[in-house]
Amino acid sequence: MTNIQAASRPFPPELVRSVSPALETHTVDRLKEVWTRPGLSFRDRSLISIAALITRGQVAGLGLYTDHALDNGVTPAELSETVLQLAYYAGWANALSATPAMGAVFAARGIAADQLPAEIPDQFLPLDEPAEAQRAKTVGEQFEATAPGLVDYTTRFLFRDLWLRPGLAPRDRSLVTVAALVTASQSAQITFHLTRAMDNGLTREQASEVVTHLAFYAGWPNAMSALPVFRDVFAKREA
Amino acid sequence: MTNIQAASRPFPPELVRSVSPALETHTVDRLKEVWTRPGLSFRDRSLISIAALITRGQVAGLGLYTDHALDNGVTPAELSETVLQLAYYAGWANALSATPAMGAVFAARGIAADQLPAEIPDQFLPLDEPAEAQRAKTVGEQFEATAPGLVDYTTRFLFRDLWLRPGLAPRDRSLVTVAALVTASQSAQITFHLTRAMDNGLTREQASEVVTHLAFYAGWPNAMSALPVFRDVFAKREA
Amino acid sequence: MTNIQAASRPFPPELVRSVSPALETHTVDRLKEVWTRPGLSFRDRSLISIAALITRGQVAGLGLYTDHALDNGVTPAELSETVLQLAYYAGWANALSATPAMGAVFAARGIAADQLPAEIPDQFLPLDEPAEAQRAKTVGEQFEATAPGLVDYTTRFLFRDLWLRPGLAPRDRSLVTVAALVTASQSAQITFHLTRAMDNGLTREQASEVVTHLAFYAGWPNAMSALPVFRDVFAKREA
Q1: Chain A residues within an 8 Å CB radius of B53
Q2: Best CATH choice for the domain A37-116+141-238 from the list 3.40.80.10, 1.20.1290.10, 3.30.830.10, 3.40.50.150
Q3: Which of B155, B206, C94, C125 is deepest in the core (most CB within 10 A)?
Q4: How confident is the model at residue C3 (pLDDT cuts 50, 70, 90)?
């Protein structure tokens, strides 16, 4: 948010100021402070901010954040796959609702189909078969008898398809997924996905910055509620 | 959504495709796959999809889903009572926010007041007095001293009024309530209401399909977080 | 909402009635019943209703509720600080999204900058240093190693700045914070903030009325899920 043009803000400074002068000052100063922290790149911060906005259905700022994400080095393909990922991890309507704002930015920049990942990739990323077999076994033992359809879709649609799409690196796919989980206070799902994120290359410092950054976008309570889970995942990996 | 007319989609295929070609394909193929699963009727899937959209405040697709619900055999009276039920179980503003889209479909189809349940029914459904006395006793012992007003309203407004309205069968009232709870990750409230739903006639297979279906509408994390509760309710009933 | 003018309702009676005649009757009768309960003033009910609407991103009714809050004795400065408080406790975009509706009411009433709290107050409220030192120590021991940035911001931005702003009394700042936490089912955060609210002067009866009132605005499940936490906080204070 360091280079946001005030003119393109959906809630312009004079409007915010007319309700709370302090909110306008904090919007500029404190978001700048968190965005410029070391430990997480502008690019990563753009991705998780967009994940938070889509997860909460807050489309008003999405055009602006899409513009900045592209300026910050996120590719159109990565944004495209982020929206697809969030259809599964934040809800279908949340992903669809992101398309008008993001589509408008893509159109304005002349980003066309040839810059977007294909419906079905020519080649999927290689699957870590033992890890996936272990995941499927664990979930199957717990829930196969409860919801066989959901267990089947989790394997087929998510772990043998969505996660193997090459348009978004596994580390980044994990990044937006963890951001969605923190934003929605899905503590029960964070352990698996934060572990996976770190297996996929997210460092402990980056993970720490993710939850710090999201305090602003998802609200303090969601960030604070995620901290015990983050602490336990960190401890387990370092044990 | 097998018979969705693309022309009436709030997020048209070409728009979705301009952001993510895969999201458009998955919207068509995967939602079709889940909608056409055996184990839960189109009618029931319409009800729970609408419950999910209202619970999340996602009104953009509500007109389309209302249209399809009516095509799938849901009556105007049942939709009317679903909105009323969700005022209590998803929040008042969520129910009110559903009225423009649903009212527009009703108007277009000439559905008038005589097809909608009266403010106060001529006759309420019979109350299972022993079961209700037990519920009131349990809740009273736990929370009467904490929030007497809420305990009183729960008895008077919900279990001795709302749940006895004849415009929506108890099994269907439970169905939309469980859908709202899964959608909002209200695990602590699912046990009581899923048990009640099954007492009211929802089968285990249908319940399993509800959570599978909602993975798409509420996002995977909400569905996965509900699975342990569903498993435990199933186990307890079969013990 | 006892004195709501039907003409200014975002969802007019005839529209609500066209979907559910009962919903319209309940909107008038039951909201009137809860609003007129003794134990919590109109003013406090206005504040927590607005906190619930902002926390859920339900801006449609926000203009109407802002108007009534001002009629009920909430000052522009208090509304301004409520929005700022919720930027931190409900998410930044939620606070920003409140500004069009609230700003329009302020403009219509000629409420200008001189009636709003300054960006930086001339004088902050005195800090209870021992209590704050204890809070910081507890949080630091738990989470300093997990997310040092978030722990630092919590101290600097929240407890040594936001909470000390004089535009909203600590008891009222706690009131809207607890309302936001109940509305978002943030059980893990309620214990600390309800305790603090009662330390700041919120009575047990008022707290009980808050959760009863919010059942309507946040939905029954959120209110019911908060009850065990309220019960335990009450018990601990009276032990």
Answers
A1: 93
A2: 1.20.1290.10
A3: C94
A4: very low
Residues of B in contact with C52 (CB under 8 A): 91
Q: Strand, coil or helix: what is B14?
A: helix
Q: Which token pair is C200? A: 């700041």
pLDDT tens-place string over residues C29-61: 999 999 999 999 999 999 999 999 999 999 999
Every domain of chain A and the residues it spans: 37-116+141-238
Q: Which residues of chain B have pLDDT under 50?
A: 1-4
What is the per-residue pLDDT for C37?
A: 97
- The continuous run of DSSP H or E covering B179 comes out as helix B170-183
- Say which residue the tokens 């596994």 belong to: A170
pLDDT-flagged residues of chain A (< 70): 1-7
Q: Is the pTM of this model over 0.80?
A: yes
Which amino acid is residue A88, in one-letter code?
Answer: Y
Q: Going by C-beta distance under 8 Å and a sequence separation of 6 or more, which residues neighbour residue B185? A: A184, A185, A186, B221, B222, B225, B226, C185
Best residue in B20, B36, B213 to probe A by mutation, most A CBs within 10 Å? B20
pLDDT at residue C77 is higher than 80: yes
**Predicted local confidence at residue B2, as pLDDT:** 45
- Give A77-101 pLDDT, tens digit per residue: 999 999 999 999 999 999 999 999 9
Taking CA atoms, B127 is separated from B83, B124, B160, B163, B170, in Å, by 22, 8, 7, 9, 11
Interface of B with C in 130-189 (CB under 8 A): 142-143, 145-150, 153-154, 157-158, 165, 180-181, 184-186, 188-189
Return the residue of A nearest to B53 by Cα.
A93
DSSP letters along A121-183, please? Answer: -SSPPPP-HHHHHHHHHHHHHHHTTT-HHHHHHIIIIIITTGGG-TTS-HHHHHHHHHHHHHH
Distance (Å) of CA B105 to CA B78, C17, C63: 14, 14, 27
